[in-house]
Amino acid sequence: MRALAVVPVQRLDHAKSRLAAVLDPLSRRSLVLQLAERTVRILCTVPGIDEVALVTPDPNVAASARSWGAIPLEQTDQGLDRAIAVAQRYAVARSFSAVLVVLGDLPLLEAPPVRTALALLEPYSVVLAPDRHGTGTNLLAFSPPDLPIPSFGHDSRARHRLAARRARCTLREVWALPLALDLDTPEDLALVRGVSTREGET
pTM above the 0.85 mark? Predict the structure, then answer.
């Protein structure tokens, strides 16, 4: 199985607006870049991932992608699903057999749970990892790469499950804290800092 990992990153000037109460614009831009770089570098270490693509409409993010180890793909239309569609077309054109989407705002991301999710694509057609609230999706893997599965946004976990049923695909869910904790709100930021502090004390 040839797998393409995909990291979608939005424009820096639009990024993480819900953190505006606790982070100024420059800090939010820096945070997005740091998380994106960390995500790409971790994915590059996962056995079974043959290539990492970073999809973004932001030329500043794209300019950094290759130095992180990713192929930059230009997104011309807004929206997460449209970003993933760019990667799906790339995957099909280059004969990848699977796509693994990992959102670029997972501060606790580690390679082992990603490897576990990817390995599950052998018996299943779709694998997803929900967010900590149980309603969103932070990782979505599917094979073949042109399956009409991606449906991100509000309540995406339920929509992805429905899309898999409609496509008559087998689906498996995985839960791991490194995949569940994303960074969108001040509450998320406080939680991440708390986890990091506890880990530093052990």
Answer: yes
